[in-house]
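Bump. Still looking for Bifunctional NAD(P)H-hydrate repair enzyme structure tokens.
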Amino acid sequence: MTEVDRASAAEGVPGAALMERAGEAVAHAALDYAAEKIVVLAGPGANGGDGFVAARLLAEANRAVVVAVLGDRAALRGDAAQAAAGWAGPTVRLEDADFARVDLIIDALFGAGLSRPLSGAAADAVLAAQACGAPIIAVDTPSGLDGASGHPIGDVCMRADVTVTFVRLKPGHILLPGRLLCGRIVLADIGAPASAVASVGARVWLNRPAVWRDAIPEPSIAGHKYSRGHVAVWSGPELQTGASRLSALAALRAGAGAVTLLGSKAALKEHAAHLTAIMLREAEDGWRSFLDQRKVAAVVVGPGASATPDTRRALEEACAGDRRVVMDADVFSLFAGDAEGLGRLIGEGEAVLTPHEGEFKRVFGEDADVAPSKLERARAAAARVGATIVLKGPDTVVASQDGRATIADNAPPHLATAGAGDVLAGLIAGLMAQGAPVFEAASAAVWLHGEAANAIGRGLIADDLPGALPNVLQSLASQ
Ligand SMILES: NC(=O)C1=CN([C@@H]2O[C@H](COP(=O)(O)OP(=O)(O)OC[C@H]3O[C@@H](n4cnc5c(N)ncnc54)[C@H](O)[C@@H]3O)[C@@H](O)[C@H]2O)[C@@H](O)CC1
Ligand SMILES: Nc1ncnc2c1ncn2[C@@H]1O[C@H](COP(=O)(O)OP(=O)(O)O)[C@@H](O)[C@H]1O
Ligand SMILES: [K+]
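Sorry for the wait, here they are.
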């Protein structure tokens, strides 16, 4: 955002103009509340400046506004000093802020410039604001939240009802727990020129169809089933076949022209009792020749597979040809603590890894847990193994080894159900087999998976997900 600020100024939109519009957006959100008495908490930087602008506009709209300032008002610099100069109403020290009978609080303490944990008067004010029960509108980010990681920077952090942010969402608005601390998010256009925004070359996007839809191929009228892509799924052993079956069904629903499950005869008999459109093939002497001869474009290995030598061999065979490979579940047990080994196996091939947090730690180590954010952990892991990483959860991150990433916010909590991850692995393979580039295929699959869960609603079980895809795909096509 600092770069956007600079580029905007170079294009003739000065910081003061951006700040005026930012304050306007905050005041606009505040006017949604029937609030008479409003306290604006103003910090020492531009976030506080936005607060002073909002205070002026709200006073002009006949609200009773008090600005409570952290530190010395005379110490404000630049645009913030100018904004403060435009405020002629009541001002108190932050320590003296009175939260009794206040109807609304505007948190303009810290935004993008937060550099250390809240302490002293700032921390006390956040706790008192929180305790008084009035609704809270945060300017840019709830104070105390790191907008890059989505984690509070210390022990004290505001929890807002509404967060008004500017120009673009920041990762911390979408990643947890940040999303929960922001409340409803309002993204305001404050007049930064599109070229100024584009000039910073952001490589992280909220996961929406606009990011990937042009990369997902439409079936050709002149095509046939094999030109739509053939997916192979490595079956789990007897009495562990459900997970791979879910992957196979999802791959077919995603639009792969053909899907084959490969496994032992006993396992295939179980599949045969459930499946019709999906082909079954006994993997007697490995499956390399089948993959080569039948031009399999994408392979899923891991769901229900067990961490056995057979699964390792299947994975090696999958990686040996010019195929795209989705690795899930038990692959991460096979490579526990051995990210380098996994990276060597992937080599120059195209692979997608779909770990949840536990599996991620298993492969990439415990220290991958905290530092520095889910987004950066996924990006670092992607670069380390040379693959696309889908780090799952309520804020699934898809990270490519080239640094691009998407963050999803559309999955409902009831998607956290056994087998949902197996469906996702198959969806990714189904899209990749049709020729979608790996990063876009993985991002699209994550979004479609979330939308399918939304379409089903409560009571969802993983078996329902493949069947919900046609409606989701159809409405995407007609958007
Ligand atoms: N394009 C832009 O960049 C725009 C930015 N705007 C606002 O500018 C904000 C960023 O402004 P700044 O960079 O001035 O940063 P902030 O206003 O977030 O805070 C910076 C100041 O706080 C101090 N500080 C940091 N952590 C502290 C702590 N824990 N305790 C006490 N002091 C602490 C810093 O030393 C610095 O003086 C954004 O969040 C947004 O609200 C808007 O005015 C609109 C345009
Ligand atoms: N709280 C949550 N809200 C939304 N989606 C979630 C949540 N927790 C997990 N998920 C999603 O549910 C799926 C679970 O996958 P996974 O953990 O691999 O389970 P399984 O191995 O049983 O299939 C993933 O797509 C994940 O992103
Ligand atoms: K703030």
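The first helix runs from residue 2 to 10.

Edit: fixed formatting.
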